């Protein structure tokens, strides 16, 4: 992962004098101007502080557990220090979709704890609320999940190591149109990532000759899918496209879909991988069999990097059955932080760190990834998968891929 660290370093040294004026800490700025030369590594032995914000209680508690597990799995697999400096994770519970709480916690992390990086962010509304704090404090904000396209435009200090909804949805619409699906309904969760997914599916599917019969948006914590499912049954599409945030919503949706006999009526489910996410897939079991989804990560992905990741995750998060895509976003987020700290030679500064994130490339458990220097969003392969039963449970088995996918939402 440090393969091009030398390259970044030389690039960074050229621009170091320009960037020195933007030092985040007063101490660094004073030292730099007093000597007229780049500041020596500030507190070379001080820990690198990463403030991890995610929900660890409430209906999205599972998301926080995955993100923390993924971050700790990185430290387990690669060592808990970067260039001799210990990495300290400072974990804070946003309690769910709670922008005000996230904002308050982020302020505390920046002002009191003086974190070098803000990280985590499972949910878009929380990440949106923290973006101005990252800008004001000039602290890099490493997005490990939140997947609304426009998020990276809310602060120049945001970098995303996860996905965007349009990025994973466009390939699914293309795949569907190529595979005999002509008429579709859409069903999405009624908040920003759902709106993104709906808009992209409609756009790409129609451009490929498909017809949209009806689009519904369901409440974020929707307790009952029955009325929505009946509406889809009455419309008789070839398929329903779904996006629901990872967690219990997917289970409730698949249950209602089977109970109302939509599969028997010949209607297929096609969805983003959030709906059949790895951690809860065994809980869906038979009800999810055969569902086709697109996503950037499957626990069934075969690669040495994924084997290392899964073994480390099992050690640090034994309470979770398997890592899901949020855990891999956190693992890669930590890998990106490690690469940037190394590239900066330990002299942490928000502006120089953002330069180092741009163009960063990593071998992730999901495959090769890189950060688009223009958008600070991720470029990656999106896989088409089908839920299958294996000897040790249900998996999203990859069978086709769309390489080098950028976010089409911008
Ligand atoms: C989001 O809020 O951006 C989000 C949450 C859960 C997902 C995907 C996106 O599964």
Account of the protein in words:
The chain is α/β, with parallel strands linked by helices. The strands form 2 sheets. Strands 7, 8, 9, 10, 11, 12, 13, 14 and 15 form a 9-stranded mixed beta sheet that branches. A hairpin with a 2-residue loop joins strand 14 and strand 15. Helix 1 packs antiparallel against helix 13, helix 3 packs across helix 11 and helix 4 runs parallel beside helix 5. The protein is globular and about 65 Å long. The N terminus is likely disordered. The site of P-hydroxybenzoic acid (PHB) has 11 residues, from loops.
Key descriptive features of the protein:
six-stranded mixed beta sheet, nine-stranded mixed beta sheet, globular, disordered N terminus, 13 helices, alpha/beta, 15 strands, binds P-hydroxybenzoic acid
């Amino acid at each position: 992962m440090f393969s091009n660290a030398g390259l970044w370093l030389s690039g960074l040294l050229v621009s170091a004098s320009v960037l020195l004026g933007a030092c985040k800490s007063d101490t660094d700025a004073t030292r730099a101007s007093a000597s007229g030369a780049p500041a020596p590594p500030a507190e070379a032995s001080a820990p690198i502080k990463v403030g991890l914000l995610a929900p660890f209680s409430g209906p999205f508690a599972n998301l926080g557990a995955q993100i923390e597990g993924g971050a700790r799995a990185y430290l387990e697999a690669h060592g808990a220090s970067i260039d001799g400096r210990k990495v300290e994770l400072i974990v804070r519970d946003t309690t769910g979709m709670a922008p005000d709480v996230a904002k308050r916690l982020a302020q505390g992390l920046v002002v009191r704890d003086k974190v070098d990086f803000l990280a985590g962010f499972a949910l878009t509304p929380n990440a949106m609320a923290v973006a101005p704090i990252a800008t004001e404090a000039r602290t890099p904000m490493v997005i490990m999940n939140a997947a609304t396209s426009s998020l990276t435009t809310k602060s120049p200090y945001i970098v995303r190591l996860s996905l965007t909804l349009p990025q994973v949805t466009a390939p699914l619409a293309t795949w569907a149109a190529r595979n005999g699906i002509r008429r579709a309904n859409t069903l999405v969760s009624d908040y920003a990532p759902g709106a993104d997914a709906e808009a992209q599916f409609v756009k790409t599917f129609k451009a490929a000759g498909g017809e949209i019969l009806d689009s519904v948006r369901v409440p974020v914590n929707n307790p009952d899918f029955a009325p929505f499912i009946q509406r889809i049954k009455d419309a008789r599409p070839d398929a329903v496209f779904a996006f629901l945030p990872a967690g219990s919503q997917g289970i409730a949706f698949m249950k209602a879909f089977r109970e109302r006999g939509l599969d028997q009526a010949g209607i297929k489910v096609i969805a983003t991988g959030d709906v059949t996410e790895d951690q809860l897939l065994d809980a869906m079991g038979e009800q999810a069999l055969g569902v086709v989804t697109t996503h950037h990560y499957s626990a069934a992905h075969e690669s040495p990097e994924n084997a290392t990741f899964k073994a480390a995750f099992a050690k640090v998060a034994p309470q979770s059955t398997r890592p899901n895509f949020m855990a891999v976003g956190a693992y890669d987020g930590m890998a990106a932080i490690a690469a940037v700290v190394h590239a900066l030679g330990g002299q942490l500064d928000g502006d120089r760190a953002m330069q180092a994130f741009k163009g960063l490339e990593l071998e992730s458990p999901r495959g090769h990834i890189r950060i688009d220097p223009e958008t600070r969003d991720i470029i990656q392969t999106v896989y088409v998968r089908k839920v299958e039963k294996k000897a040790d449970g249900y998996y999203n088995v990859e069978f086709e891929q769309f390489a080098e996918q950028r976010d089409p939402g911008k």
